[in-house]
Design goal:
This protein has 776 residues and is mainly alpha-helical. It has helices at 59-65, 87-91, 98-104, 132-145, 149-158, 162-169, 187-197, 202-216, 226-235, 247-258, 262-272, 277-295, 312-328, 350-360, 377-405, 426-436, 459-472, 500-514, 525-531, 552-556, 560-571, 576-580, 613-625, 630-644, 654-662, 669-675, 686-697, 700-711, 756-768, and strands at residues 416-421, 444-449, 480-483, 488-491, 585-590, 593-598, 677-679, 727-730, 740-742, 747-750. The strands form four sheets. A four-stranded mixed sheet has the order 7-8-10-9, covered by helices on one side. Strands 1-2 form a two-stranded parallel sheet. α4 packs parallel to α7 and α6 packs across α9. The longest helix is centred in the middle third of the chain and has 29 residues, at 377-405. One of its GO terms (molecular function) is ubiquitin protein ligase activity.
């Protein structure tokens, strides 16, 4: 199994050992063998029928009718007769065959030869005469005759057991299909059967659920076969599990899938990635809904007490992790990573989840932080900010204690990271201040410009960030190279004696995250991937940092033309050695001098050929994005992590770090309109109505220019437009004047224009011709 194909273990802090959780709180009581099942009482039949088409009655009413339908199954050999005393006993079913699952985890290599069992062949499948065409014809006949018997018999037979499921849906009943690339399942037939199921009468839907229960209650006598995995794969797609009345059955299905061995998960992951986008998304949404309704049930009486089903959410989360892994193996992904977010988690105690994760890791107690892909970026920002605040308070408190212990008068300034800088020496002063006050980086930031009166209520801090970024990223400064094709900056590979200014940029980014400031920085996504490599500073200083695996896709985000050229080299059908005449060398210009670097020892003497061109391209990209800028990026990495050193970073994807630093590119101008404050205007004033008519009618590029003009960035904070605190103030000047912006306060000063045409003309001129960050 390749490393890339492994299903990742849930995220765990480095200081704790990882082990798969099986419950949400505390240790789960010892599981017992399934009790004998006795007949249902009349009271169990008082279930609530959902009534609407495509839904089923509650599980309790279904259970009470199972025995009454024996005649439909008398001529079949059912493994278990499904009769329940009452609904609570059904919901409290213990896990299935724990002892078997534990045994199958024992490596056969450790057993003596006389105890080793031979590999079991795939079981012989029952004959299944129905084809997809037969089934569809039966469905069509129902429309004219109203007789559901043939359809009922098909569902009764197909869902009675795992072998029957395979007999019905396997493309070739005689083939084993033991490969990860092909599940061997007729996906179109499965989809057709499930699409028709929700439109069948209630008794057919109940028959399907009865068969699923019988299958899940089956005693396992050995490791799972590939046919068993196929059955799980098919059952997981059942749309009946959208209904809360089926959640008890769904939970047991999820548990059995979650507790499969890693090799079985490996097969399922690769089968999941072959699903259509629609079916894949349905699986994810169904699992997210299951977790949400277990956390916040609309009708708590529908579910057993949380103490008796503490394994529901961990099981669902584990299956979601398999789907998330499958999604990451597909390029492009089947669905955006944001589709795995569960917004319900924004309303739970996130810090308790975080502290549980830090304290226990994956060993004893479940935490959603073990599965960070389900936590939204907004929720992660809350965790990071509160973790930062706690660190700030702790450091400030220690400073106060030290002052008092030395019998010195406490000064309120000691609670802040106070920056005093001159505008004329902005970079050097900032670097000196941050170097001297390295121990204070996790305190709240306050900035003072020397020779200027005024308190920093947030505006001066933002101005300091804007001016510093503007100066450092200027091409003449030489630290970063701007690539016009990709509209982004990348680290200059020029060698120098001191890389402290790169460390300053890293500190700036860290302070921005720490102090909830959105920066107008244009780094490619690859930069943030490197920034999390690793997410925690290694204790061994000899371990390299900021090194990650890179591909032509990463290079394309920075230098698209070069990436295209390398891709052409890989696909070239002629003789590479004779036609390109290249060696394993790279040439770079540094201060007007062309320098050569070998991509491997003796690279200047190794020609690039059809056989080794893949190696050449990979070494070339690795040199450009990793090796040639290692010292620059390492300084940048250490600067960022000197401020943001926190286990909370392990929860983030590279894309999420970018959003925290730079904001989200998705604009919602209607949300901005709803949250805008006014000074001198009312939202019903004619000028304001003209303004929003014009802005809402702007194309996206002009809307971004407006946002950049007024806030210094064309991106939106993680919390949305409301977090901008956008304000429109009345500018009592001539209507011949253009609008003015105070980017430090996200404020637009708007003259009282008399017509929509005049306002639109002046606004477009203003936002299209502002220099730099639009600072006044």
């Amino acid at each position: 199994m390749s490393e890339a194909d492994r299903v990742p273990s849930p995220a765990a802090p480095p200081e704790v050992a990882a082990a798969a959780p099986d419950e949400r709180k505390g240790k789960e009581p010892e599981r017992e063998k399934l009790p004998p099942i006795v007949s249902a009482g009349a009271g169990a039949a008082a279930g609530l029928d959902r009534g609407s088409k495509g839904q089923i009655s509650t599980f309790s009413s279904f259970i009470s009718t199972v025995n009454q339908k024996k005649e439909a199954a008398e001529n079949r050999s059912s493994p278990t007769h499904l009769v329940f005393p009452n609904i609570k006993n059904v919901r409290d079913l213990p896990p299935i065959c724990l002892d078997v699952r534990q045994k199958q985890r024992i490596s056969t290599d450790t057993l003596p030869s006389e105890m080793k069992a031979p590999v079991l062949p795939e079981p012989v499948l029952p004959n299944q005469p129905k084809t997809m065409k037969d089934f569809q014809e039966d469905i069509e006949k129902v429309k004219s005759s109203g007789d559901w018997k043939a359809v009922h018999d098909f569902y009764l037979t197909t869902f009675d057991s795992f072998p029957e499921l395979n007999a019905a849906f396997k493309k070739d009943a005689t083939a084993s299909f033991n490969t990860i690339e092909d599940s061997g399942i007729n996906a179109k037939f499965v989809n057709a059967v499930y699409d028709a199921l929700l439109n069948t009468p209630q008794d057919i839907q109940k028959t399907v659920l009865k068969g699923i229960i019988n299958s899940l209650l089956r005693e396992w006598k050995g490791p799972r076969t590939k046919d068993d995995l196929r059955a799980y794969f098919i059952l997981l797609q059942n749309p009946q599990f959208n209904n809360t009345s089926t959640y008890v059955i769904y939970a047991h299905l999820l548990r059995q899938i979650a507790t499969l061995v890693e090799a079985d998960h490996h097969f399922l992951v690769h089968w999941f990635k072959k699903l259509s986008q629609k079916r894949f998304k349905q699986l994810v949404e169904r699992l997210l809904q299951f977790i949400s309704l277990r956390l916040f049930p609309a009708k708590p009486e529908e579910f057993p007490p949380i103490t008796k089903c503490s394994w529901w959410i961990p099981s669902a989360s584990k299956v979601l992790a398999l789907l998330n892994t499958a999604n990451s193996l597909v390029h492009p992904p089947l669905i955006p990573y944001t589709d795995f977010y569960n917004s319900t988690l924004d309303h739970i105690d996130l810090m308790e989840e975080y502290h549980t994760w830090q304290s226990f890791g994956n060993s004893h107690r479940f935490s959603f932080c073990q599965y960070p892909f389900v936590i939204s970026i907004a929720a992660k920002k809350i965790i990071i900010q509160r973790d930062s605040e706690q660190q700030m308070i702790s450091i400030a408190r220690q400073s106060l204690v030290d002052k008092v212990s030395r019998r010195q008068r406490p000064d309120m300034n000691m609670l802040f990271l106070n920056m005093k800088v001159r505008r004329t020496h902005l970079v050097s002063d900032s670097l000196d201040e941050l170097t001297r006050k390295r121990a204070d980086l996790k305190k709240k930031l306050k900035v003072t410009f020397v020779g200027e009166a005024g308190l920093d209520m947030g505006g001066l801090t933002k101005e300091w960030f804007l001016l510093l970024i503007r100066q450092i990223f200027h091409p003449d400064y030489g630290m970063f190279t701007y690539h016009k094709d990709s509209h982004c900056h990348w680290f200059s590979s020029f060698k120098c004696d001191n890389y402290s200014e790169f460390r300053l940029v890293g500190i700036l980014m860290g302070l921005a995250v720490y102090n909830s400031i959105t920066l107008d920085i244009r780094f490619p996504p690859c930069c943030y991937k490197k920034l999390l490599s690793p997410p925690i500073i290694p204790s061994d200083q000899n371990i390299p940092v900021g090194i990650c695996s890179v591909t032509t896709d990463d290079l394309c985000q920075i230098m698209p033309e070069l990436a295209h050229g390398l891709s052409e080299l890989l696909s070239y059908e002629g003789n590479v050695e004779e036609d390109f005449y290249s060696t394993f060398q790279v040439f770079q210009e540094e201060f007007g001098i062309i320098k050569s670097y070998n991509l491997k020892p003796g690279g200047d003497k190794i020609p690039v050929t059809n056989q080794n061109r893949k190696e050449y391209v990979q070494l070339y990209i690795d040199f450009l994005l990793n090796k040639s800028i290692y010292k620059q990026f390492a300084a940048f990495y250490y600067g960022f992590h000197s401020v943001c050193a926190s286990n909370a970073l392990m929860l983030l994807r590279p894309e999420e770090v970018e959003i925290l630093v730079c904001g989200s590119p998705e604009l919602d101008m209607h949300a901005l309109q709803r949250s805008t404050q006014y000074d001198g205007y009312a939202k019903t004033d004619l000028t304001i109505r003209y303004f929003w008519d014009v802005v809402l009618g702007f194309p996206l590029d002009l809307q971004k220019k407006l946002l950049h003009f007024t806030t210094g960035s064309d991106r939106v904070p993680v919390g949305g437009m409301a977090d901008l605190n956008f304000k429109i103030s009345k500018n009592e000047t001539s209507t011949n004047w253009l609008p003015v912006a105070h980017t430090c306060f996200n404020q637009l000063c708007l003259p009282p224009y008399k017509s929509k045409k005049d306002l639109k003309q002046k606004l477009i001129i203003g936002i299209s011709n502002s220099e730099g960050f639009g600072l006044e």
